[in-house]
Design brief:
The complex is a heterodimer of chains A (67) and B (599).
Chain A (H helix, E strand, L loop, with lengths): L5 H21 L13 H21 L7
Helix pairs in contact in A: 1-2
Chain B lengths: L4 H21 L6 H6 L6 H11 L3 H14 L5 H4 L3 H17 L5 H8 L2 H32 L4 H7 L6 H51 L1 H8 L23 H17 L3 H8 L4 H15 L2 H14 L7 H7 L1 H6 L32 H9 L4 H37 L5 H28 L1 H15 L2 H10 L5 H21 E3 L15 E3 L2 H26 L30 H18 L2
Parallel strand pairs in B: 1-2
The chains are: A mainly alpha (67), B mainly alpha (599).
Chain lengths: 67, 599
Amino acid sequence: MGLDIRTPIGMMFSVFGIILTVYGLVSDRAIYARSLGININLAWGLALLVFGALMLFFGLRRTLPRT
Amino acid sequence: MNLTAVDWLLMAVYFAFVLGIGAVLKRYVKTSSDFFLAGRSLPAWICGLAFLSANLGAQEVIGMAASGAKYGIATSHFYWIGAIPAMVFVGVFMMPFYYGSRARSVPEYLRLRFDEKTRAVNAVSFAVMTVFSSGISMYAMAKLIQVMHILDGPFAALGVSSAWTFHISILLSAVIVLGYILLGGLTSAIYNEVLQFFLIVAGFLPLVFLGLKNVGGWTGLKHDLPIAFTHSWRGMSSPHTNPFGVDAFGLVMGLGFVLSFGYWCTDFLVIQRAMAADSMGAARRTPLIAALPKMFFPFLVILPGIIAIALPTPVATATNVSTAGHMAALNESGKGLIPAKVDEVTGAAKVDANGKPVLDYDLAIPSMLIHYFPTGILGLGLTALLASFMSGMAGNVTAFNTVWTYDIYQSYLNPKAPDAHYLWMGRVATVFGIALSVAAAYAASRFNNIMDFLQLVFAFVNAPLFATFLLGMFWKRTTGHGAFFGLLSGTAAAAVHHGLTLPTGASPGIKGGWLGAIHLYPSEMAQNFWTAIWAWSICFLVTIIISLCTRARDEKDLVGLVYSLTQKPAEDDVAWYMRPMTLGAIVIAMAITLNLIFW
């Protein structure tokens, strides 16, 4: 199949990761009262960013020219 | 519920990817085999995650959390007893015949192994069932969007009455699922199921983490709850000492054998995912790879339910009533985070005969999301929830269009058309399959009883199925007449058993006893399990007896379809961890370990 599924998965989770991380950095601390004081947007956003980047790496590895 | 721009942005990104994947895949769909079987070209891990995800519909995420809140960790029996062994069996022992026979669907396997009439019964009942299941999924999703007031904000901004929520939700989900299946066929559905799998994990893992941290971990939960909630086998020796109202034998035979094997080993919805694999080895590994994450799903979907019931009941204050609507007000008459059911006429909490509020367990997951997630990640959690509904719907629709096109249309209505015509028919079937689902969703919203009745009929039809497949694959003497009449008598046996028994406290009718109750079961679940056990046993016996009385098929016609006449697939050419037998043994050992840990 021409489309490696890891590429769109990687892209989607990277976008999710970026949105949540940025929002975590700029949002008002008060909203984190319900998540036990943890800035869950920032923490989980970074985690998703790492996952997304890994998926992208494996998805694109075949198509990128070898050096 | 207060959603902000960032929540909507996350949701929009997801929908863009769902449709985008379909659009990219469109150019690879050239033949009917590409559309219905993904060209048999996918690697095992993709098929495996889709195998898991196709089943991960509304019933699973909402229902398992509800059951967790109601019964505790014993709900894990639906995984560790009611799924894992069957998934291993279908991968190791049955897939060689499904995949090896080159059948394009489960009914088509029945045609190859038995005869036309056995296939017809299975194809027609399956097609009707998938349309209704997808309709029920759609209905549940629209209902949830309504109850959680997800669309209230944007609707108010646009000046649309919130009375439209239900209709718009149905329409949107139908259009999106239709869009990506029409474009990319089964590949598109499978790719999106893989995406949904990761999304569900990404949305629910932080929820479990926050919930567990809040209650002081598993130790804290054990401390807060009655002992039966945190021990899965406690009181299983007698139906009167556990919340399910079943004994270990009924549980293992009814759920663990008849119902579970009947679903995982014969239901084309899941088998189709394995048939899309690129090789026999990959097809056999598909259910085994699915079993690995499957056995840890209780921690993702059951645990939030248990946490929801263990938390202190929130007190509705003036502020949260005004922001979260009357859901918060009703929390007060609930237990933990589980609100009471609302009487639709009076708007007050429903109470049972003893004056206790009736809890709406289905709201366990939604309440947990609202309780712990601030805006931002709340959008991710809701997207995960919506994704689970849509993967359930899409799974049913792709199974429906295949069975309709190959097993009904091509077999009985128009057998000699060129391949392009069947590809076209598959797309047409997708459109009317979804249209029928929408009709079913509206039927469900109007006539609750009709849906209960239909689900009962489906249960009767499904219960004996595994006996037919087991005999068909492993006993070469089984004949078409035997299989056909075995199936019919199994279904009849299920209906008769249901008509003669009743769960304690229920009145005769849809719950059973319509032929006069001669036996009372401690619970509805016990009755269901025993209905299945009876249906299976009668089908098994009748199939054997009639097979012995009818003429056996020529052995050369059964090569590749029956165990004793088929060469065992070689396993030596791949690494040890990729061999189905080895993988199966590892999966079973892990499932036993989990049972022991939560004993």
